[in-house]
Amino acid sequence: xxxxxxxLRARLADPASIxxxxxxxxxxxxxxxxxxxxxxxxxxxxPLVMHDDPTVLLTLRSARLNSHAGQVSFxxxxxxxxxxxxxxxxxxxxEEVGLDPAVPEILGRLPTLLTGxxxxxxxxxxLLRPPFTLSNQPEEVDEAFEYPLAQLLDPxxxxxxxxxxxxxxxxxxxxxxxxxxxxxxxxxxxxxLSAVLRAQD
Length: 201
Known about the structure:
- By secondary structure, the chain is α+β, with helices and mostly antiparallel strands.
- The protein has one domain (about 5-155, about 185-200): Nucleoside Triphosphate Pyrophosphohydrolase, CATH 3.90.79.10.
- Helix content is about 25%, strand content about 30%.
- The chain has five helices and eleven strands.
- The protein has helices at about 5-10, 25-35, 85-95, 150, 185-200, and strands spanning about 40-50, 55-60, 70-75, 75-80, 105-110, 115, 120-130, 140-150, 160-165, 170-175, 180-185.
- Strands 1, 2, 3, 4, 5, 6, 7 and 8 form an eight-stranded mixed β-sheet that branches. Strands 9-10-11 form a three-stranded antiparallel β-sheet.
- The relative contact order is 0.22.
- InterPro entries: CoAse, Nudix_hydrolase, NUDIX_hydrolase-like_dom_sf, NUDIX_hydrolase_CS, NUDIX_hydrolase_dom.
- Pfam families: NUDIX.
- This is Coenzyme A pyrophosphatase.
């Protein structure tokens, strides 16, 4: 497929209009308040790499981290005081994988979602035009890898699974990969991104 930046930017201009895989922001915040309001604002960069066959850049978090160790994610983390989600996502991407903040072309945001661990995450979508260089911070990232958009666009690719967690039955998406288990909030963002990309056509 070929990415159309102008159409993507227009589609992302109103995150509230994008079909959500998770509850709405209002429901997210209400759920956070019911759990004690301990939600932490965060942002991730969702980088679309402009190869002839485009991909999305993902990371495998270090097994040495205290939280979400060894999980697949997007570059990102907590939003510092005074930062916008875009600034936080670019800063974290530079810290985690050495991505020059001048390289990504920001297109817009996907809907904010609340993770099961209390992070209120804003996904920031950007284009990466090769060539660019990455240098993983080993304390945070074991590997950066790319997932083909052609597979992401297949509506039959993700699998919806159910599992009991802390006494509740939860549903979550899993995306196929030959080496990594892509699930949870990252998989949910990919489901939403997939819907946005298919809407280009």
